[in-house]
Amino acid sequence: MDRRTFLITSAALAAPDAGQVMTVRGPVAPSALGVMLAHEHLFSNFGEEPEEPGRYDERALLAAVVPYAKSVRELGCSTIVDGTAAWFGRNPRLLRTISEQTGLNILTNAGYYGAAEDRYVPRHAREETADQLAARWVKEWREGIGGTGIRPGFLKIGVDGGALSEIDRKLVTAAARTHRQSGLAIAAHTGENEAAALAQLAILKAEGVRGEAWIWIHANKARDLEALNEAAERGAWISLDGLDAETLGRHLELARRMKAWGRLKQVLLSHDGNSFRAGGKRPMRGYTALFTDFLPLLRQGGFTQEEVRWMTVENPARAYAVGGRPG
Ligand SMILES: [Zn+2]
Predict the structure, then answer these.
(1) Using one digit for the tens of pLDDT, what is the confidence trace for 202-218?
(2) SS (H, E, C) the chain
(3) Residue 95 Cα, ligand 1 centroid: separation in angstroms?
(4) What separation in Å is there between the alpha carbon of 270 and the centre of ligand 1?
(5) Structure confidence by residue, pLDDT tens digits, 253-272
(6) CA of 175 to the centre of ligand 1 (A)
(7) How far is the CA of 272 from the centre of ligand 1 (A)?
(8) How many angstroms does the Cα of residue 4 sit away from the middle of ligand 1?
(9) What is the pTM of this model?
């Protein structure tokens, strides 16, 4: 092969967006993301009937969300990872509008949410194979979501309590296979189901994907804290994303544990807030406690500026950067 042919072939094989973070307005360099909230919801229809894409009273939604999101930006946030999945309110076009009106970088997702007793898993996912589901998600990655041209920045899945069900296993397998074709990180609603966290990591391993591709969403709810260390040992990102006025002490304790285990470089912080819940029918859950309460608490608690920077800037940028983690 001559040099020119070789260069063309390598260019075709290299993922054009590798190393970038894919936002609803296109790829952004990880170093440009600033302080990042790793798991929030700008809006959702969670609790309502499944529907894709999510439909809203858009005027009411933007009137509520845009000023609030601007206030979060003024507190120092530059980037928000939006965890609202397909079938419970995902709407990339509205996220792009909010991004344009606030200057925030926002990530949306592909994938299906297998928690909430599979209420938001579409019927076709029960009949299709993991490969067929992966093909749907890879198509969104390559072509954009539902004709909008807006590409997902990660994969969002979820599992129920207890042992992984057949559909849970299929979603995890499909996410692993999509990761191999796209380099998108896998954010998995797992919460207090420690056994399910380790079971998902085992499926990833069998599929040739390292733990570094997987984010334990709601890890702050775990009761067996040793499992957090074990998952981190296997490479997983630990998302402590339940910050609010009541959970500050719990999050501080968890951050201390992770620090003692030498795992702070794998910790992500967020609120699981929602500025337009159930289509605006329920009171919002805020996402400012990190800035107003938790960062001061971390500093008083002896966390260095550098450690705070890992958890709020560097870790989430690495966790959500596009790139294959084969292994
Ligand atoms: Zn969430």
Answers:
(1) 999 999 999 999 999 99
(2) CCHHHHHHHHHHHCCCCCCCEEECCEEECHHHCCEEEEEEECCCCCCCCCECCCCCCHHHHHHHHHHHHHHHHHCCEEEEEECCCCCECCCHHHHHHHHHHHCCEEECEECCECCHHHCCCCHHHHHCCHHHHHHHHHHHHHHCCCCCCCCCCEEEEECCCCCCCHHHHHHHHHHHHHHHHHCCCEEEECCCCHHHHHHHHHHHHHCCECHHHEEEECHHHCCCCHHHHHHHHCCCEEEECCCCCCCHHHHHHHHHHHHHCCCHHHEEECCCCECCEHHHCECCECCCHHHHHHHHHHHHCCCCHHHHHHHHHHHHHHHCCCCCCEC
(3) 16
(4) 10
(5) 999 999 999 999 999 999 99
(6) 18
(7) 5
(8) 48
(9) 0.95
- In the block, tokens 């971390």 appear at 298
* Across 153-180, average pLDDT: 97
Sketch the domain layout of the chain as residue ranges.
36-319
| Secondary-structure class of domain 36-319 per CATH | alpha beta
The Å distance, Cα 284 to ligand 1 centre, comes to 13
